[in-house]
Design goal:
Blueprint (H helix, E strand, L loop, with lengths): L13 E3 L8 E3 L6 H4 L4 H14 L5 H45 L3 H20 L2
Antiparallel strand pairs: 1-2
The protein binds zinc ion.
The site of zinc ion has 8 residues, from helix 1.
Length: 130
């Protein structure tokens, strides 16, 4: 699921976490809340931080737009990693719920044995009779 929305970058002192379903407020220079940032692999965190530092200071407009763009790319990569992890977590939870539903609603051991044995016995008796 590619993330299309432009990530807000340091506008104001406070903004929402970049993860859309989070809703946590973060300082303007941060991309996401502590919890979600912790899900970003270290190399991607470094890339975002370095791209962010590269944007600071005085640059020509052309140079700045290149640096802003590369920060955006790094930020989107980090965000997509978190979204993929969250999606995998959700899928796992759904699978666990389904497994739990099967255990409580399914046949227990004895039911399963009789279910498997009965048709076999009937078949044997029928073939023995003339
Ligand atoms: Zn968050």
């Amino acid at each position: 699921m590619p993330y299309k929305t432009v990530i807000p970058m340091g506008i104001g002192d406070y903004k929402p976490c970049a993860v859309p379903q989070c809703g946590e407020g973060v300082a303007g220079r941060h991309l996401m809340c502590k919890k979600h940032w912790a899900m970003v692999p270290a190399d991607q965190q470094r890339a975002v931080v370095m791209a962010w530092s590269a944007m600071q200071g005085n640059h020509g407009l052309e140079e700045l737009s290149i640096r802003v763009r590369s920060h955006q790319i790094a930020a989107e990569r980090a965000l997509n990693t978190v979204l993929a992890l969250l999606e995998a977590e959700q899928a796992q939870t759904a699978m666990r719920d389904q497994a739990a539903a099967r255990e409580t609603g399914g046949l227990d051991g004895d039911d399963l044995d009789s279910f498997l044995e009965e048709p076999e016995d009937e078949l044997a008796e029928e073939t023995l009779e003339p």
